[in-house]
Predict the structure.
Amino acid sequence: MKPEPASSQPLLDVRNLEITFHGRDGAMKAVDNISFAIEKGETLAVVGESGSGKSVTALAMTQLLPPPPVCRVGGNIFFEGLDLLQLRQRELRRFRGKEIAYIFQEPSTSLNPVFTVGNQIAEAVKLHRPEVNDVTAEVIRALDLVKIRDPDKRHKDYPHQLSGGMQQRVMIAMALACHPKLLVADEPTTALDVTIQAQIMDLLKELKTKLGMSVLMITHNFGIVNGFAEKVVVMFRGKIVEAGETQSVLRNPQHPYTKALIACIPRLGVKQQRLTTIDYATLG
Amino acid sequence: MKENLFIQAARRPLGLAAMITLGVLYLVAIFAPFIAPYQTQTQQLQKTYHPPTGLTWQDGRLQVKVYEQVDPTVYEPIPGGAAPIRFFARGFEYKILGLIPWDRHLFLVEAPERIYLLGSDSTGRDVFSRLLYGAQISLSIGLIGITITMTFGFLIGSLAGYFGGWVDNAAMRLVELLMAIPGLYLLLALRSAFAAHVPSDQMYLLIVIILAFIGWAATARIIRGMSLSLRQRQFVLAAEVLGQSTWKILTRHILPNTFSYLIVAATLSIPAYILGEAALSFLGLGIQEPSASWGLMLSQAQDSKVFMMNLWWLLIPGAAIFVTVIAYNVLGDVLRDIVDPKMKVQSR
Ligand SMILES: Nc1ncnc2c1ncn2[C@@H]1O[C@H](COP(=O)(O)OP(=O)(O)OP(=O)(O)O)[C@@H](O)[C@H]1O
Ligand SMILES: [Mg+2]
């Protein structure tokens, strides 16, 4: 084992990230000067409402946003000390999937309807792990890892033959098949039923400890952050309004927006007359 | 996916009928040298505009009637005269599928008598034989043409839709330019841009290229729209985040999802190629004598004699074109119904 050269260096270090979209009616700043870092093996939750710039931040990390002039990205994103924003598309392909893997909100549309799920996982394995000889065995192992029953039969299924929860498990299996160092999960449970949500979150929790990978969890639900992420970042209209340890943010939120979001978490046994609403006028 | 589409089509009566028709046509074209009693260029100047020979049953075997020429173009059967048809007889040499040399023919009659199942033309060539050989050219031109068209249409359309920006702009302006010019004028203009006289074998290639050049634009435009919308689908993004190359994304994610459209579009546009070749050859700009194509054979029927003297058999290539075009259109319609349930008319 080589000694870790810079143990102080975080796995992912985002500095002064700015994302601007240029449309017909002028420029729109989707992300405005945000910075955060993720250590090895750590989980960071990015919480914020719809349109606050969470997804574009995640996509910017491997330059998946539309090319200029439509979209301009400023700042630095260091991955193990290397600035991803300076890399060319060809070099980035080594990082996509291999070092940084993604799972998305909508499992049903994330899988190509014309291929079997096993075929799609195999594609990922072949792409980044050419040394694997028995790809099918690897696919079955990956499906087994995400707790799909009868993986030796299920890998021959087409996406439409699986339930939403199973499709999301397949997406997770596909993302993890190449042993990424960082998993970006963009609202992985939003499209799913509540009971399935809990199962998927449990699975992710188990897998990240087992594989020792870092996770960037994007969500607008504070409820799933607790017990899953060590740190949390709250985004509001493209800016980070609050950041810190999950426990301290939950216990003692500073920003009124965070307080409002936390108030939205439904609690067992607490009777709520109406759903809490966020009063934007007071937030400015 | 792919086999499925045609199996589904075969379950519908119309689809099955169209597929059988096309199957027979292509089989006949492939085995043309075996079925045809004569070669395309074999002339018989004493028997010009011979009507289709009648068949009789005499002496316990199938025979053809023998005719005598009463006027330059009027033939009368000789009473009692007949020549026996010999099946699997030796005739001119050819190669089965262009490979195995053979000289057997499905049927022949003893020379000097000739069998003209569909009459003879102005130089006494057998229309039936020429029709079969013509099928080889007329039917294959559509398939080869459409393959080239669909390949280019897909490549240009999907790249335009996938990359967007200036690539898209450039490609689509070119498409609009091509589509703005009426097809037949473009066909003639392109044809005249090349040398007036081209050897027959190169002519075939030239026609295919000209037709494909005109055809790709419409396909490219539709594929561009489809790939633009597929690009937004999350599985394309999922392939991108996995680090797939552009080529892989095009062939694995865009192509299979546009495949059914391509099949339907191809089936529906093959008639345009068959008609395009027919038009060029009819106008004397396509396949040259002594080769045969349906369009070229029809151009002989322009002669006023055909109508004056009711030489109806010279119009048979037109009927062949008609049947082929109808069969392709019906099959295309059936495939489209299967692929696009929204457009399905209640069918039972
Ligand atoms: N391709 C694009 N072109 C123009 N604007 C875009 C594009 N993608 C995102 N935006 C804008 O960027 C802003 C941030 O979008 P983003 O998708 O990051 O939101 P989000 O926080 O992920 O929301 P959600 O919770 O709904 O997923 C939005 O205002 C959106 O309109
Ligand atoms: Mg989002």
Chain A has a mean pLDDT of 87.
